[in-house]
Specification:
This protein is an alpha/beta fold. It is built from ten helices and 15 strands. The strands form two sheets. The protein has a nine-stranded mixed sheet with strand order 14-13-12-11-7-10-9-8-15, covered by helices on one side. It is globular. It binds nicotinamide-adenine-dinucleotide.
């Protein structure tokens, strides 16, 4: 067994709280009763569609447990409380959740509300002295992201962004190959991220709540992917926008943006972010000596990936289960993830998004080394 495979198994095993030495084929069968270490007690804020997915996935966590709820809808609290056995004293609404500071039974709050509310809610959670896990995009621009980082630092709490792909086994295997030089000098990355968005009245198409369109929601996967697959920070951005439906996609809500990122080592990323094409979820990385292709690359999985050496076969584990177990290790035991998920990592993506919007507006190449 090669070192790369051992590395991925180690990450995956630790993610489900298993001893390091295991056979990947019995991952689920053996995930029973080994773990008796510290557990991160989490309150979910925003009981919507992704919050529901995270709550379900957390039922299989070893190191993280859903213990609290924050919602503006009393009927949801009633339903979730019964389903997940959450005590009344751990349930809050958006007006009173600052009182969480007096609750010793909650360690962290996972903010899963519309993007435009992330900054305000993160700052309030930090002031209440609780760690924050916040969904992507971390805010609606880099200024908000930096405010969130500063607030969490000042309150001495951790801020992590919900980048679930940073813990996904096939992603990690390819990133490890890239870092080990198995593709040679990286020349090109292609990221395609998109889906056709439905209901025109949803918050994702409301600038105040979303901060933008497809780029904020799905294009960010290509930005983030370009950075971890290439392993460098981009130094320039160019971008072009097209809009086929200006009624549905109003001013400030991008439907389709093509963008290019230039990296200091000479690699270029060429990416597409769109709300106008379904099932667009593909990464391609090309180096002088090899290549990697992932399709789907960032969906809920299973992820499919192959390289010039063949198909990757790492087992699929529910992304949010792995993510929450790993984030518990980061918060409670100061573990270092292989690909960062801290607030500063989120700000890097937000700066690139700001630059992409700027490049679309001005038609000019934006220098990222000055932001
Ligand atoms: P959603 O609309 O299904 O849920 C949003 C929740 O926020 C709802 O429960 C809603 O009641 C609540 N909310 C509070 N204040 C609100 C307001 N003023 N307007 C509207 N809703 C309000 O959305 P979602 O799909 O769960 O997305 C929530 C967040 O999670 C977003 O930031 C999104 O980008 C992120 N997300 C991440 C992933 C991922 O894979 N990491 C996937 C989906 C969504």
């Amino acid at each position: 067994m090669g070192t790369r495979r051992e590395f991925v198994q180690k990450i995956t095993a630790s993610a489900v709280g298993l001893p390091i030495l295991f056979n990947s084929t019995n991952l689920f069968a053996d995930s029973g009763s080994f773990y008796d270490g510290p557990v991160l007690r989490v309150a979910i804020m925003g009981l919507g569609s992704y919050g529901t997915r995270v709550a379900e996935a957390m039922q299989s966590c070893k190191r993280a447990k859903l213990v609290g709820l924050i919602s503006g809808t009393p009927a949801k609290i009633t339903k979730w409380k019964a389903k997940y056995n959450v005590p009344d004293k751990n349930c809050y609404n958006y007006e009173n959740f600052d009182r969480i500071k007096d609750n010793p039974d909650i360690d962290a709050v996972y903010v899963i509300t519309p993007n435009g509310l992330h900054c305000e809610f993160t700052k309030r959670v930090a002031l209440a002295g609780k760690h924050v896990i916040c969904e992507k995009p971390m805010g609606i621009n880099a200024r908000e992201g930096q405010e969130m980082v500063d607030a969490c630092k000042a309150a001495n709490v951790k801020l992590l962004i919900g980048y679930r792909m940073h813990f996904e086994a096939k992603t990690l295997e390819i990133v490890q190959m890239s870092r080990a030089g198995e593709f040679g000098k990286i020349i090109f990355f292609q990221g395609q991220s998109g889906f056709i968005i439905g209901d025109p009245n949803q918050w994702r198409l409301n600038k105040k709540l979303s901060g933008g369109g497809a780029m904020m929601d799905i294009g960010i996967y290509s930005i983030n992917g370009a950075r971890y697959m290439i392993g460098e920070e981009p130094i320039w951005v160019t971008a072009q926008e097209t809009k086929n439906d200006p009624v549905k996609f109003k001013e400030g809500i991008d439907e389709t943006i093509q963008f290019q990122l230039g990296f200091p080592g000479g690699a270029v990323a060429s990416c597409l972010s769109t709300y106008a094409v379904n099932h667009l979820d593909r990464f391609y990385l090309a180096g002088i000596d090899g290549w990697a292709e992932m399709q789907p690359s960032t969906g809920y999985g299973p992820i499919k990936a192959r390289t010039h050496k063949g198909e990757l076969t790492d087992p699929h584990i529910t992304h949010q289960t792995v993510q929450m177990d790993e984030m518990a290790g980061i918060i409670l035991e100061n573990k270092e993830p292989f690909i960062p998920v801290d607030g500063e990592e989120g700000v890097k993506d937000m700066k690139i998004i700001d630059a992409i919007y700027n490049a679309v507006k001005t038609g000019k190449k934006v220098d990222l080394t000055r932001t």
